[in-house]
Amino acid sequence: MAKRLVLVAGNIGSGKTSLTERIGERLKWHTAYESVVDNPYLPDFYQSMKDWAFHLQVYFLGHRAQQHLDMYNDPRPAIIDRSIYEDAYIFARALHEMGNINERDYATYRKVFDLVTRNLPNPSLLVYLKAPVDTLIERIQSRGRDIETTITRDYLALLDSFYTDWISNFDLCPVLTLRTDDLDFVHEPRHLDTVVQKIKEKLSGREEIIFK
Predict the structure, then answer these.
(1) What's the CATH number where 19 sits?
(2) Per-residue pLDDT tens for 164-203?
(3) Is 85:66 a contact under the CB 8 Å cutoff?
C-alpha cells in the first residue's frame, strides 16, 4: 500500500484538532499537531505581533517542514493537524495584509517557503474543514483559551477569504471539503462514520465529494 499522508486544514475553530484525534484513534493512524506549548515565539508574538510575526512564521516553517517529512517517512499512515501550506497562503499573508510583516520580510519568507516546500513529498489528501464565521466565533468563545481572546470576527473573515483563494488553486493532491457547522464528529458517532467513509473513498481515488 502506498504511503498515506493526510493533512487537515481549516480556519481557527473549524475542528481540525478534534478530527485529527478521532481519525487517528479510529484508523490507528499516526497523528501530529501544531507546536503551541513548546513554541518559543508565541508569548512574544502575542505581546507585540509586529515585532515578532516574521520570527514566528519562520519558526513555524521549519517546524512544519520537519513534521511533514517525519510523518511521511514514518511507515504508518499519518494525519497532521494543519498543513505547512496554510502558514504561507493564509497566516503569513494575513500578517502581511494587516501590516505586521513588512514587504521586505514577506518577500524573504515567501522565497524561503517556496524553496522548502518545493522538495517536500506531496500529501495523499487534504481534508478542508469549513464553517461560517459566526460558528467559529461561538466555538472559540466556548473553549475559552486565553491566547484566543484577541481573535476578532474581521480577522476570521479575512482568513476565510484567504482559505477560499488557496483551496481554489490547490493541486498537490485531492481535496475533501467538509462543512462542519452541522457536523459533530466529537459527540455523534454516525457523523464520524460518515467522515471516515468519505476519507477512505477519496484515498481510494474516487472523485471529489463535498459533504454538506
Answers:
(1) 3.40.50.300
(2) 999 999 999 999 999 999 888 888 989 999 999 999 999 9
(3) no
Number of domains in the chain: 1
Q: How far apart, in Å, are the Cα atoms of 142 and each of 5, 33, 135, 136, 139?
A: 31, 21, 11, 10, 5
**Tens-place pLDDT, residues 96-138:** 999 999 999 999 999 999 999 999 999 999 999 999 999 999 9
Strand-strand pairing, 78-81 and 5-10: parallel
DSSP-assigned letter for residue 87: I
Active-site residues: which are they?
81
Query: How much helix, strand and coil, in percent to the nearest 5, is found in the chain?
Result: 55, 10, 30
pLDDT in tens, 65-74: 999 999 999 9
Return the number of other C-beta atoms located less than 10 Å from residue 58's C-beta: 18
Pair type for strands 78-81 and 125-130:
unpaired
d(Cα 160, Cα 176) in Å, to the nearest integer?
17
Q: Which three cell numbers stand for residue 77?
A: 499512515
Range of the domain at 136: 5-211
